[in-house]
Amino acid sequence: MSEIIKTDNASKPLGAYPHARKVDNLLFLSGIGPRNPKDNSIPGLELDMEGNIIKYDIAAECHSVFANVKAVLEASGSSWDKIIDVTVFLTNMKKDFPVYNKIYAEYFTSVQACRTTVEVKSLPTPIAIELKVIATID
């Protein structure tokens, strides 16, 4: 038995998929980015007239993506401390990993979730980070 989860408190999915899906006592989150749930903006992002990235703020995106993940967890009946596995996608590992890793440690020190971090060429919107999370539900 599974249950589909959607919430207005996290950035909206960009396609035909839910924020999360419960299966037994496991919760699988779809890829979650840092877009603001209220206006779809990306914190710290500046684009030129052609939509190319002028500058971005990986720290602001990290805090925002973690807030979106937390919102989906809570809407699903789970919580931050129940995260068991995180896959992180960065678009610029060399430049962004040190800042991301420091902020990640602030959020996950007591959680001790398994983690994989990979670099990807791009993500569907001009974001620098996306998380894929698995958590438990009591």
Would you kindly provide a brief summary of this structure?
This protein is of the alpha+beta class. It contains two helices and eight strands, in the order βββββαβαββ.
* Estimated helix fraction: 10-25%
Shape category: globular
Number of domains as seen in the coordinates: 1
Q: From the coordinates shown, what is the CATH architecture?
A: 2-Layer Sandwich
Order of helices and strands: EEEEEHEHEE
Ends distance: 15 Å
Strand sequence of the main sheet, in spatial order?
1-2-3-8-6-7
Q: The CATH topology, please?
A: 60s Ribosomal Protein L30, Chain: A
CATH superfamily: RutC-like
Query: What is the helix tally?
Result: 2
Structural class: alpha+beta
Strand content: 25-35%
**Main sheet characteristics:** 6 strands, mixed
Instruction: Report the oligomer.
Output: single chain
